[in-house]
Amino acid sequence: MSDDPAGRTASGPAESDVPPVGMPAFREALAYWVKLGFVNFGGPAGQIALMHRDLVERRRWIGERPFLAALDVCMLLPGPEAQQLATQVGWRLHGVRGGVAAGACFVLPSVAILLLLSWLYAAWGGLPAVVAVLGGIKPVVVAIIAAALLRIARRAVRTPLHAVLAVGSLIAIAWLRVPFPAIVGGAVLAGLAASRLAEHPRGAGPDTEPPALEPAARRVSLLGLGAAGLLLWALPAAALILLRGTASLHLQLYLFFTRASFVTFGGAYAVLAYVADLAIGSGWLARHAMVDGLALAETTPGPLIIVLQFVGFMAGWNHPQGMAPAASGVLAALATTWATFLPSTLLGLATAPFAERLDRLEWARAALGAVTAAVVGVIASLGLFLAREVLLPSAAGGRADWVAAALAVAATIALVRYRLEAHWAIAAGALVGWMRLAMGV
After folding, report:
1. Any idea what the Cα angle at residue 142 is, between residues 138 and 144, rounded to 5°?
2. Which long-range contacts (CB under 8 A, 24 or more apart) does 353-356 make?
3. From CA 228, how far away is CA 96, in angstroms rounded?
4. Tens digits of pLDDT across the chain (441 residues)
5. Residue 386 and residue 142 in contact, taking contact as beta carbons nearer than 8 Å
6. 8 A C-beta contact, residue 297 and residue 269
7. Which three-class secondary structure string do you get for 256-297?
8. Where exactly are the structural domains of the chain?
9. What pairs with residue 9 in β-bridges?
């Protein structure tokens, strides 16, 4: 698979611009979205490639150019781009109800599966067999992040400015403790400044790009969508205040993950470094549990950012505040999930009518390029954190786990050189972990 999940080259689309066959019935499209929710393994690259194959090449529900324009816009937005792409295609087929159905079905199976896995982990995660299996998966997770880092770096670090942003963001988040939102904001400003200098040297005229949100009718729909989104966000917040009070952990989680949802540029690996720092520092969960949660999330379908649900569940389980641990964990997980995916779904719907116009904005592309370059450093920071925890486990007094190191190296080679699918690498890691337990290694 190429760096571009849809198979484009630098010169343009790789596939022919085949027009869609026709509009499917809503029931037919809904059946596809439900099925997609259960089979969309492989991270954003695999998910986007799957949708491209199904929707453009096989079913021909959408043409090549509209699909790629929607993909480019989703890359500009915070949130899981594959879920937002499904939302935009659903909107194109059946309007708002189609977008909501596609976006919801994309994540609901993973929500249910990870909620069950989180409960099993919290209740029985200390069993030797569970510890052993997770111990085999975690080095593979380190390898998956290393492979993702290499893939993103090849695509994102294209200029000296990008290299400076990547290295600077690594130093800023890993050693200077600069908040992730500040890194994103600084990268946006750097990208915009570089774009202006490139387009208008020596005081050239102003940017004449027409505004993206020009039609008045679209503005009315955006106002309605914004009002609906605000209401959908405020109702759970009000319910949490009434049920748990303004000082409750559940409300804190809801507010924190709402803020986090607007800085999730670069996907789950980037924002997870930001979340892990606060979650561990606040005592919501232990350092090793953070790694275990990422391992569990890698085994489920859906966007990897669903790992934030695990963080919320464990925070609620560990700090029930008068509730039963399981009930507190479920409430915290659902609040976290709603706060994470509501903004991304609304952004997908809001930008869907303007995808082809937004795709042409050079300043937006420059800002995205700068943010993606900075994200390389953030993901490297997350990789260092996980590698230190997995390969130099604190439980072993900081001694190197050479079996885990060998497994991580082998998995990285398999993923990068031989393009092994991630779920097969995870299955192999689980088997190695179980064998280590059986052999007493």
Report:
1. 110
2. 353/91, 353/218, 353/221, 354/73, 354/212, 354/213, 354/218, 355/66, 355/69, 355/70, 355/72, 355/73, 355/88, 356/65, 356/66, 356/69
3. 12
4. 334 555 544 333 444 444 455 679 999 999 999 999 998 876 777 788 889 889 988 899 998 888 877 887 787 788 898 999 999 999 999 989 999 999 999 999 999 999 999 999 999 988 898 889 999 999 998 898 888 888 878 878 889 999 999 999 999 988 888 877 788 889 889 988 988 887 654 444 444 444 444 344 334 478 888 999 999 999 999 999 999 999 999 999 999 999 999 887 766 777 887 888 889 888 999 888 988 998 898 888 889 899 999 999 999 999 999 999 999 999 999 999 999 999 999 999 998 887 767 656 778 778 878 887 888 888 888 888 888 888 887 655 667 889 999 999 999 999 999 888 887 888 999 999 999 988 876
5. yes
6. no
7. HHHHHHCCCCCCHHHHHHHHHHHHHHCCCCCHHHHHHHHHHH
8. 26-107, 110-200+214-439
9. 12
User: What is the token pair recorded at 165?
Assistant: 């942003």
Q: What are phi and psi of 179, to 5 degrees?
A: -60, 145
Q: Answer for the pair 64, 17: CB distance below 8 angstroms, yes or no.
A: yes
Amino acid at 160: P
CA-based nearest residue to 357, from 76, 10, 94: 76
Residue-level length of the chain: 441
How many angstroms separate the CA atoms of 181 and 185, rounded? 6
